[in-house]
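tool_call: predict_structure(chain=1)
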Amino acid sequence: MAEITPPTTPKEADLQPLDTPPAVTSPPPGLAPAQVCVEHVSKSYRMWSSPAARIKEPLLKRLSTPAGVTPWNGWIQRRRQGLYQDHLVLNDVSFEVKRGQAFAIIGRNGSGKSTLLQIIAGTLTPTAGKVEYHGRLTALLELGSGFNPEFTGRENVFLNAAVLGVDPKHARERFDDIAGFADIGDYIEQPVKTYSSGMQMRLAFAVQIMLDPDVLIVDEALAVGDIFFQQKCYAHLRAMLDRGVTVIFVSHDLITVQEFCSQALVLNRGNPVFLGPATEAVMKFNQLVRQPGRASLSLSRPAGRAKTTERESFPLPEDGWSDTSDRTPTVTSGHVRVERVLICDESLQPRNIFEQGETAVIFIEYRTNETLENPSSGFTVRNGKNLAVHAKHACQTGATLPSTVPAGATVIFRHELVVGLACGQYTIDCGLISIPADCYSGDRIIADKFDQFHIREVQYEGLLELLIVPRHHYQGHPMTHFGYVDLPGSVKIMLRQENEP
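tool_result:
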């Protein structure tokens, strides 16, 4: 089996440039200067053809002359190159993470995520580039790996604290918090070798996050324990972010990435392919993991499907429309623009205050500059933390999209939304995508084709405002539900008295 050792700095030719440089967005306003700065980091490993090659290569290197003019040098160089192969696992990665920011690194298995985290944590040395950070850094890379199995949980807490450079007095002051957070009961006084793997991870996680780090690095460690412990971990991490702690983590839970992180980096085979908002990063990642042509379905449309624009008529409100001419889209292809928008109730009366459970109607009018295929309008509802609590496109509702919309035409979409949301203030993003015909099999959209080929034509952030309030006239509790969203359901009640069959 080939042995792997760190090589010398790779040649410039080994570091292939990106086809397209990663899109870099500005950091959120109000944050302090960069807490972590990664500059042009690359990492490669030298794979030897045999154990003996590790000895032959340095000997041949010593035989070559510095001037390189002897006839032996060419032969020596060819022999040296045949003894090893440099395997590049990270290629020119750069990004900054601000104080108090949650930053995710996502990618397929083998894309270099964990290698990058180890370089940031200092347990690996980069082949090229550098990493700088400020403050105390703790890393949750392999939970429990630093525990002595013969020591008790209490002793391992102080051992880990000493390794992290924490003052013993401070560690003693935080011990009760750590033990309470780990919640392993009397096992804290037992040798770690008697712990289950889950108990070890809970204690290790509690040690790292309760010792007041400035930078916390997490590698899939948020999956420890049951769902209640996970929720406790996330609540504590959010509190740490509020205190200005910087969090960098790797996770395959893409919903968590979108909710928890503001920025994300997508890696593909060691190359940075996207750097920007977490929601867009997840979309990019989904395009990477989809396997095109997964199903052996015909991609041609049935002969009977019309190729012209289908027409549908519905009443439109006369007043209350908002002109968007002064708004700048965050995404635009130049093929279409939003002319005006409106939010109203079912009777077409403009308003943006709704009681929980009412139906809101959203009108979005687009004007095309180019011919569009299968345009689908969509909207996203965001709460005060910029979390997308609901997002939906017309193509997800089963609506029949117009096959083509010619240049210079106007197309209006009418979206209905039952506002089963928590009471509070929200904003609504609006946008439109086009779906090439090859993404269809009959009237069915093929998901992997859609993810790969759909076009984001235009998107506006915060075009509309929405305020949800409790119900005023209802038999039950004025709040329809607690939590972010209202899931449909019902309740039945049966009463039995004593001795009744």
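agent: Residues 1-32, 291-310 have pLDDT under 50 and may be disordered. Proceeding to next step.
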